[in-house]
From TrEMBL:
PROSITE patterns: PROKAR_LIPOPROTEIN. Residues 97-151 form the PrcB C-terminal domain. The lineage of its organism: Bacteria, Pseudomonadati, Bacteroidota, Flavobacteriia, Flavobacteriales. This is PrcB C-terminal domain-containing protein. Residues 1-25 form the signal peptide. It comes from Urechidicola croceus. It comes from the Bacteria.
Length: 164
């Protein structure tokens, strides 16, 4: 009887440990706003403002933010489930704009979205978007991947293109 109880406890402890480990398997930089600066091929400077797996938007969308009011609205939506939330970045809207990418709701972890490259042509700016899908085992959690970056302001037409 005691052996049966100990075996049951071993399995319960193993299951509990496995569950906790899988929840922490892929830590993302959700709570820390990164200040990574990357210079792309065309020398357009990109500064990552925030990225994570729970962004609050259930559908895929790309937003070009050129004013403070829109920035506050979008960050308020992203911060609805966070305590503390991401601080709203200080943007010089005379010279900069923010690109916000939302992948939409996914049924498990392991998804991600980011800007891979920016091509500045004579008449447009092409934002090349990289989407990552999970490989192998993932956490079973509903997520909404998102990505914010700051780029130099432009009045050119902005075109979004998914790339590999």
């Amino acid at each position: 009887m005691v052996n049966k109880y100990l075996n049951s406890m071993k399995y319960l402890l193993f299951f509990f440990t496995l569950t906790i480990a899988s929840c922490n398997a892929k830590k993302e930089s959700v709570q820390n706003v990164t200040n990574d600066t990357t210079v792309m091929k065309n020398q357009m400077k990109i500064e990552v403002l925030a990225e994570g797996s729970h962004g609050g938007y259930e559908t895929s969308k790309y937003i070009i933010i050129k004013e403070e009011k829109t920035l506050r609205e979008v960050f308020t939506k992203v911060n609805m489930i966070r305590r503390p939330g991401f601080p709203i970045p200080k943007i010089d809207f005379e010279n900069e704009m923010v690109i916000a990418l939302f992948m939409g709701q996914k049924n498990n972890g392991g998804y991600g979205i980011s800007v891979k490259n920016i091509v500045d042509t004579d008449d447009s700016i092409e934002i090349q978007i990289k989407e990552v899908e999970p490989e192998g085992m993932t956490t079973m959690v509903i997520c909404q991947p998102f990505y914010f970056c700051k780029i130099p302001k432009s009045d050119k037409n902005v075109v979004f293109k998914k790339v590999e």
